[in-house]
Structures are given as C-alpha cells and as structure tokens.
Write a structure and sequence with these properties.
Elements: E1 3-6, H1 10-22, E2 26-32, H2 39-43, E3 46-51, H3 62-71, E4 76-78, H4 88-96, E5 100-101, H5 106-113, H6 115-122, H7 140-150, E6 154-158, E7 168-170, H8 176-191, E8 196-200, E9 206-214, E10 220-232, E11 235-241, H9 248-264, E12 269-277, E13 283-289, H10 296-303, H11 307-315, E14 332-339, E15 341-342, E16 348-349, E17 356-358, E18 365-369, E19 384-392, H12 395-408, E20 410-412, H13 418-426, H14 428-432, H15 439-443, H16 447-470, H17 476-481
Parallel strand pairs: 1-2, 1-4, 2-3, 4-5
Antiparallel strand pairs: 6-7, 6-8, 9-10, 9-12, 10-11, 11-14, 12-13, 14-19, 15-16, 17-20, 18-19
Helix pairs in contact: 4-5, 5-6, 12-13, 13-16
C-alpha cells in the first residue's frame, strides 16, 4: 500500500499518520469544518473536507468517504477507533470498492459486535463465561425465572454497543420488570437494537483486557494484558500494563483464552479481548473489541511493538514477524485519559478554548494529543484532549512519573481530569493494587480533588497571566481574578 486514508479525527488520526510516515506511506486525512486547522489535518500529506461539524454529516458518511478515497486513488482505509471502526457495512463497502479495510473481516466485526453472538462463537473453546442467559430475552417471566436461578444481584446488558448503555444492576426480584424495560428502551435508543440478556453480577470485578494480533496465515499472538478498572460511567479513565494482580500462570491462561477467542471468528489484525476478574481471580469472557483500543499505547510501551504498523503489515498480507515466545513484558506503563470534563460536577463535559496548553515532556513520558494552544475543544465529539502515558522500570516508579507529568501539564480555559488522575495516583487503594471497577464510587468525592484543582488553576492562571502581561493585554491580578466557567453539553460521542 502506497496511500492510506485515515477515516477518523483528533489524536488517533494523528497517531496513525505518524506511523504511516515512518513506513513511507502517503497519508490522507478527512476532516469536518470544525477540524479544519487541527494538527492531524496539517500533518497529513493530503486532506479533504467531508462536511459540517456534526459526525452524522461528516465522519459517519461512509459513502462520501469511500467516494473521496477512490478519487484520490487510495489503497487502504484505516478507521482508527470509534466512528466507523466497528461498522461491518463500512468494512464491506471498502472491500467491495477495491480498497483494503485495515481491520478485521466484516464477518468478525458482526460476530463480535453482538455480545450474544460472541458468546455462541467461543462456546466450543471452553472459555469461562459469567453465568446467565445465552440468548436475548423475549419473555419477561422467563427472564425473571432465570434471574432467580442465577441469583440476585444480576446484570441486564445490551447485546449491541458498549459504554455502559443498556446496562442495569438489579438487586431484587421486584425491581426486575421495571429495570428490564428501561434497559431495552435505552439499548434500542442507543444502538437501534433492544436485545438484552442476563448475567450474574460479579462483585468487586476488575476489568482486564488482552491485546491480540492475528495475520492472514493462521498466526495469532497475545501481547499481554491491560488493567482498565478505574472507570467512570462504565468508561475507562486510567489504564496500565501489566496488571498488579495477575500471576504469570493466570496471565498465560487469560492470554491463551484471548487467542482462542480470536481463532473462533477467524480474526485478523489488532483486537482486544475483554474479561472480568473476580475477587477470587477467576476470569470470565466479556466481549471482543474489533479495532485498535484507545489505551493501546501502554501495550506498545511494555512490548516495543508499534500496533498501527502491525495493522498495516497484516492488512497487506504479511506474516507476523514474531511468535508468542519472542514477546515479553518490559517495565510498567500507565495511561491517563485527559478529558475536558469536570470531575467535581459528575465528570460532565466542559467546553472552552485552550488558552494555555503545555503538555509535559522528559524521560518516559508520551503524550498522544490532537490539540494545540489556542484551539477550541469542539462540542460535537468526544471530549478527550489527550492520552498522557508514562513508562518506567516498575509500577512504583511509573506512578511517581505520572504524578510528575500531571504536575507539569498546564491547561487553562477548561476543566480536565488531570486533578482526578493525581488523586488516583496518590490513593492507597491504587498504589497497593487493591482496587476494582468501583474505585470512583468507593473512594472519589468532589472535595477530594478540590484543593489540587484549585492549586492547578492558580498555577495555570499565573502562567497565563505572565504570557498576557508580556503582551500588554491585561494585568496579572485581572487574570487571577477571572471566574472559571464550566460549559456543559450532553450527547457527546464517546468510545
């Protein structure tokens, strides 16, 4: 492949473009009117505007994207994550148009895009499953019977989609019918598919996922795990690799299970198999994400493997250049998703202009971002500003390096999750490794980061004041006295 179109935006588009440049491959960016001057657009060899800011009028216009790709004589399309990355229709259309979809087959996307279909596909491989139903609920009374058999509390889950939508925890039998109706309605609204099923609610679970790579020649490997248990609204905020609780034996078992999941759907490319790990360290298959994950940098840091380059190599028919025995874990990596959100106000999105934007640097720090100082964070898309990643020889050093990186990160103009990230790194539960997906619910409260947030704002305001004072625009006192506003907008697209 000589020319690849990146059907995405922001930091992931820029990250893909950078790897393409290193491979000597021409890159094409597509952008909405809101992203006209974004770094990923400027970094690409070619760029084309595909519509107004709303996703439905730009980044989700699959036929228009394919039309432009053909006009520009593109060889392949990389979907990134989110948007069209797990859309089997798009993957099929790209292939039918004579181009290469840099991802799995439409069949694999369809099978793993449904949690119920995924369970059925892996059933013959002996992979542990959370007790529950293996088909969509179409009878309320039958669902209640199964729920009682499984034992309360139970979890009602949407078969399609993710992000916590269509998910309900039911503590008692008399709540079941009402919660079932709500879950079905939410799933239908979010995904156009109201199919739901029941699972036993796993108490104090940890979210462990395994990165896999598979080529077109039958070779499948896993690149170890990522711990993703620090979440808000069932969406990840902090990820690390390796997990602090997995033994070598458990790591091998989970890795082998992930490889089997990939084999079950004849997978190719990069994918992630997600598991729940209970308090007894028993693991259960959740789902497979048929794309590059947001948190893929931590795997790259501990393995030294560029996952985007591997995706491209696999897509053009190459065999994996390494086997499972060649892979090993080196050091420890942590990622903090830096969102334009207000942790003190329920992590609601915060909109504004990056009046000051100074990411950290130095040994062991990687920042994947898609913004620069002076840009506005658009209301139309996911509010993630960057992925702040650190790497060190061991977990303790990685935590301390993350604290240093957070302290160096200067953002003025909107609120972020940086203060929350510092709270996590400092908390004994995280430092000891004794935490689960209930971390935010169990330990975090708005006052916990208030002092740190205020100090961060003060430091950033002082920095901004100095800049403006030098420009003769205002006084330091005026800047420091300026009110901090939170601009909130619902219905942001999240991944």
């Amino acid at each position: 492949m000589k020319k690849i179109l990146v059907a995405n935006r922001g930091e992931i588009a820029l990250r893909v473009i950078r790897s393409l440049k290193e491979m000597g491959i021409c890159s094409v960016a597509v952008y909405s009117e809101a992203d006209r001057e974004a770094p990923f657009v400027l970094a690409a060899d070619e760029a084309i505007c595909i519509g107004p800011p709303p996703s439905a009028e730009s980044y989700l216009r699959m036929d228009h994207i394919i039309k432009e790709a053909l006009r520009l004589k593109v060889d392949g399309i990389h979907p990134g994550y989110g948007f069209l990355s797990e859309n089997s229709v798009f993957a099929r259309k790209v292939t039918e148009a004579g181009m290469i979809f840099i991802g799995p087959s439409p069949h694999a996307i369809e099978v793993m895009g449904s949690k119920l279909a995924a369970k059925a596909a892996v059933a013959d491989y002996g992979i542990p499953m959370v007790p529950g139903t293996d088909k969509a609920l179409d009878d309320v009374e039958e669902g209640l019977r199964v729920a009682k058999e499984v034992g309360f509390p139970i979890l009602i889950k949407a078969s399609a989609g993710g992000g916590g939508k269509g998910m309900r925890i039911v503590e008692h039998a008399d709540e079941f019918k009402e919660q079932l109706a709500r879950a079905i309605s939410e799933a239908q609204s979010a995904f156009g598919d109201g199919s739901v099923f029941i699972e036993r609610y796993v108490d104090k679970p940890r979210h462990i996922e395994i990165q896999v790579l598979a080529d077109n020649h039958g070779n499948v490997v896993h690149l170890f795990e990522r711990e993703c248990s620090v979440q808000r609204r069932h969406q990840k905020v902090v990820e690390e690799a390796p997990s602090s609780v997995l033994t070598p034996e458990l790591r091998e078992k989970m890795g082998n299970a992930a490889v089997d999941v990939a084999k079950a759907c004849a997978y190719r490319g990069a994918g992630t198999v997600e598991f729940l790990l209970d308090a007894k360290l028993d693991f259960f298959f959740l789902e497979m994400n048929t794309r590059l994950q947001v948190e893929h940098p931590v795997t790259e840091l501990i393995t030294g493997i560029d996952l985007v380059k591997e995706q491209v190599k696999i897509a053009r028919g190459e065999k994996l250049s390494f086997s499972q025995k060649d892979l090993k874990i080196i050091g420890h990596a942590i990622e903090l998703r830096v969102y334009a959100e207000d942790p003190e106000n329920g992590f609601l999105p915060d909109i504004g202009t990056l009046k000051v934007y100074r990411p950290p640097s130095g040994p062991g720090i990687r920042v994947d971002d898609g913004f620069r100082e002076g840009m506005e964070v658009p209301v139309y898309y996911d509010p993630m500003i960057s992925k702040l990643c650190v790497f060190a020889a061991d977990r303790e050093q990685a935590i301390e390096r993350m604290i240093r990186a957070i302290d160096e990160y200067k953002v003025v103009g909107l609120k972020t999750t940086l203060g929350f990230g510092r709270f996590v790194m400092k908390h004994e539960a995280f430092r000891s490794g004794d935490f689960d997906t209930g971390f935010v619910k169990n330990f975090y409260h708005p006052e916990a980061t208030k002092t740190e947030q205020e100090q961060g704002l003060k430091d950033a305001a002082t920095l901004m004041a100095g800049i403006l004072f030098q420009e003769g625009k205002t006084t330091i006192a005026e800047v420091e006295a300026a009110p901090q506003r939170t601009n909130w907008k619902q219905n942001r697209r999240t991944w």
